[in-house]
Amino acid sequence: MTKSVFAGLAACIAVSAMAFAQPNSEPNPYRTVEHWFTLPDGRTMGSTSAVFVAPSGHIWVAERCGANSCAGSNLDPVLEFDATGKLLKSWGAGMFLFPHGITIEKDGTIWLTDGQGNNEKGHQVFKLSPEGKVLMTLGKAGVAGDGPDTFNQPNAVAIAPNGDIFVSDGHNPGRGNARVVKFTKDGKFIMQWGGHGSGPGQFEVPHTLAFDSKGRLFVGDRANNRIQIFTQDGKFLEEWKQFSRPSGIYIDKNDVMYVADSESTDRDGYGHNPGWKRGIRIGSAKDGKVTAFIPDPSPGAGATSAAEGVAADTQGNVYGAEVGPKDVKKYVKK
């Protein structure tokens, strides 16, 4: 093991030791707003892990066609709401099988992952205009693979300041893919790193990605109950466990970090993360300190509950995209 890896491990142990003292003890300065958005008559929200606030302040959600899959549906899964919850537009019918992760660039360009696949569609990453025009695709429609031009259940996309594209790929612990793949802004393969395991730079379900103001890449290594931090060349810097089991990460321009844990449980088996409660933890991407905790109101008995995806607007309102309850909650300061 190299000296740099030892240094990174020492740093992460120090941070984790600080944070493990009192998990779940941070205050909750938020109140929950339910039913803040309006859908057309007869339309219901489906399962969603994809929510993002555009530079315009509009809230974008990619949901799974009123269910937990868009297979066979003619509904539009991509929804744009204004700050009051009014639905402004929808699109995407027939384009996606399993919308999973969404991110939006400063110019309004939308990136969306299709996290499952059949013989016709899925296992792809889409670059889209706000009107739903396809600008670029990565991966092959319906083809699962581990090469430079294929994915197997891609989860999330993050765009570096220079336009490089990062995709986290793999949704099953111990099987399939477990990697981060890097492309140029034009979609040309540059590199990948990862592989199954719990060591530095290994992953078990790299479920979510985000950049901080320094350009460091934060990877939500969900089934390892940790966040790993890397340079853009894949060099391991630190691991943080104080934000619990990360399903979603959002970092704002001030390096305030929002992390959604939808799976932690004291039970053995999937989700095992004893002592940690589900919910949204808020803190700093600069020093790793957790300062607030919005607890999941459910008992956490199922495989997933409350927010998987998370985002925040410039006023500090928080949005949680929920797979199990098929909802998007809004959290505002009390």
What brief labels describe this structure?
mainly beta; Neuraminidase; four-stranded antiparallel beta sheet; 5% helix; disordered N terminus
Give a verbal description of the structure.
The structure is a single chain. Strands 1-24-23-22 form a four-stranded antiparallel beta sheet, with no helix packed on it. The protein has a four-stranded antiparallel beta sheet with strand order 2-3-4-5, with no helix packed on it. It has a four-stranded antiparallel beta sheet with strand order 6-7-8-9, with no helix packed on it. 5% of the residues lie in helices and 39% in strands. It has one helix at 3-19, and strands at 30-33, 50-53, 59-62, 78-81, 87-91, 99-104, 110-117, 122-128, 134-138, 154-159, 165-169, 179-183, 189-194, 206-211, 217-221, 226-230, 236-240, 248-251, 256-261, 279-284, 290-295, 307-312, 318-322, 327-333. 46% of the residues are buried. The protein has one domain (3-333): TolB, C-terminal domain (Neuraminidase), CATH 2.120.10.30. With 334 residues, the protein is mainly β. A hairpin with a 5-residue loop joins strand 8 and strand 9.
Summing up helix and strand content along with how strands pair, one would put the structural category as mainly beta
What's the rounded overall pLDDT mean? 94
The helix/strand order is HEEEEEEEEEEEEEEEEEEEEEEEE
Tell me, what is the CATH class? Mainly Beta
The CATH topology label is Neuraminidase
Terminal CA distance reads: 48 Å
CATH superfamily: TolB, C-terminal domain
Query: How many distinct folded domains?
Result: 1
Oligomer: single chain
Strand percent estimate: 35-45%
Shape: globular
Q: State the CATH architecture.
A: 6 Propeller
If helices are DSSP runs of H or I spanning 4 or more residues, what is the number of helices? 1
Main sheet overview: 4 strands, antiparallel
Give me the Rg, rounded.
18 Å
